[in-house]
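haha ok so turns out i had the wrong file open the whole time. this is the CORRECT one, sorry everyone. sequence first:
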Amino acid sequence: MKKSHHLALSHDYHLKLVPTSFIDQNKVRTDSFQYTYAHQSFLMVTPGGIAPRGSTVIFRYEVSALEIRYRYTRKPLYHLLTMMCAIIGGIFTVAGIIDRVFFNVHQVLRKKIQLGKQS
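then structure:
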């Protein structure tokens, strides 16, 4: 067995739990937890600069007082129809603007050619 050169290596684990519930379209509730964790390792040193013998492992956990709820909701059909009309209307608007710009540029170039100013 090898001896570790880091005799005072400490490990600190932090776990945070958040209660979570999922409510589906049939109003069935499923409870669970979401979690995050963090880990940190460091060398312990006393103020005199001498590392104490032995390692430590620290576990910390925190349970949140707030609950996250996910609820399944279905959007009505008119929402889809409204979005489709908005997209189609936007396409026609942009196409109209581009057409108007090309038409104006064409008119200006045609007038310059008629006047003989186009080089």
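The chain is about 35% helix and 35% strand.
again sry for the mixup
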